[in-house]
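Exercise 7. Predict the joint structure of the components listed below.
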Amino acid sequence: MEAAHGKLPDFMSWSGLEALPWFWQPFTNSFFAIAMAILIPALLAFFIGFLTFKNRIRGVYFSILSQALSIIFVVLFVGQQAYTGGTNGLTNYKTLMGFALSSPSTKLGLYYISIVLLVLTYTLCRFLVNRRIGRILVAIRDGENRVRFSGYNPTTYKIFVYCLSAALAGLAGAIFVPQVGIISPAEMGIVPSIEMIIWVAIGGRGTLIGAVIGAILVNALKSGISESFPAVWSYFIGFAFIFVVLLMPNGIVGTVRKIAGKFGRQGSQRVAGKAA
Amino acid sequence: MDTYILQIFNGISVSSILMLAASGLAITFGLMKVINMAHGEFIMIGAYVTYLIQNLFLAYVDKSLFGLYFILAIPAAFIVSGLVGLVLEGTVIRFLYNRPLDSMLATWGVSLVLQQLARTIFGAPNVDVRSPGWLDGGLVISQGLQLPYKRLFIILLVIVCIAGMIVLLNKSKTGRRIRAVMQNREMAQSMGINTRRVDAYTFAIGSGLAGIAGCALTLLGSIGSTLGTYYIVDTFMVVVLGGVGTLLGTAAGGMLIGTANTTLEFFTNTSLGKVLVFILIISFLQWRPKGLFNISSRALDE
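Solution:
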């Protein structure tokens, strides 16, 4: 809203809209916008998750379904150019709540806010994992039917996790945009979604710190390599996918833990025992 | 009236390509429980093979025989894609059986590599394949209605391929082995079937079919490295909708999605049409999560 300085944003006027559509109006208040950035993805996830998990769509079909959904959204957002800016996306961000975005102090401020949010999120997830709900989630991963037979309803937990991850993703998106300056429907597509999966896969799935490590590592490499050799990046990330899935299924953190396990006190006894 | 017939015809034409591309995927997934995200790239390989054969003919063969290049290109696309599929299976897929999610990631990596390879070899811009002269024009039905020969040929090609597959699967020893492994892998192994070999050549056949689909696609437009990504999602939708492991399911799914796509695009605009089709698919999946026709066992999957 601030980008338009109180007038109609460009893409709306050149698409023929006369006045700001009613559903954009409340977003002029920054706090409402931020709250919505977290709530709307969560609500969407609730709706979709409910329909999906209630019907026990699992595994493969679930993945294909979510890909289809991301395409639907991309197509929808690109098609409705009047409301969303089409393929060009939303850009022209100059100020955030009155702070000029191009000034170094704002950039630094946003950077620190991102780090604080990361720590908070990590703490929240750690907290959840250590309580009963975390154990139930692990149980669902290991044997969903057994959890169901034990009397829990896995659907509720799955919907909860889905909504939580959607809310966190929404938060991340809200912080992402002022720092990058543009958001386009391509970011909603399959490719970025799969890239995020690969961050977790490389870092170590099933571990929280792995997700953080994976994301930082892959993106650092991406910036470094694709600036110098763009073609190499595709080869590199492709082979990285294959390599990690085949040889390091537990990612970096998992492999480190496995190696560390061999060196620990019990570990060396185990190794010695095997050799003997 | 004419526009309706034309629309229905277009729908059938689009469905036929989807069916061809999806049958390989359905069989691979039904057999090995492996999701091959690189399937689109096999389509791309088939299309590029056609392009290469066209260039060979332009350089070495007499002008009057140019039209024949396409006849040669179809088996060539099948063979090349099949070989690449065989290599892929032996190096990567083999380790990923029964791990659909991992195979999805790994084959996505493969698809990235293959796309970049295509860009390096052929260049990033799209290339055009000149269709052979005997496919120009169309079948004139009435005053305003002309069914293009190209699309008719594609429909014919798909019918021949699918008929061939049905014969292979149901009437031959090879097909019986494939079906056995698909239904119960351990039992088939106990009966003495070499499941490794069955997996290898089934994957090769599936990839080869995708290659033929790519060859057919050269008639419809220019080809580039992103050809695969364009078709992969629709292909997966066909497999998910039709049910895994049966050709009948793939055919039904392809038909439904193809016609739904063209009809809804006709009534609304392109983007909204695609969205509506996907919404229909998702709603359908609420009712039957495993697709239209699927071979399901009574075992409770963990």
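Discussion. The two ends of chain A are 71 Å apart (CA to CA).
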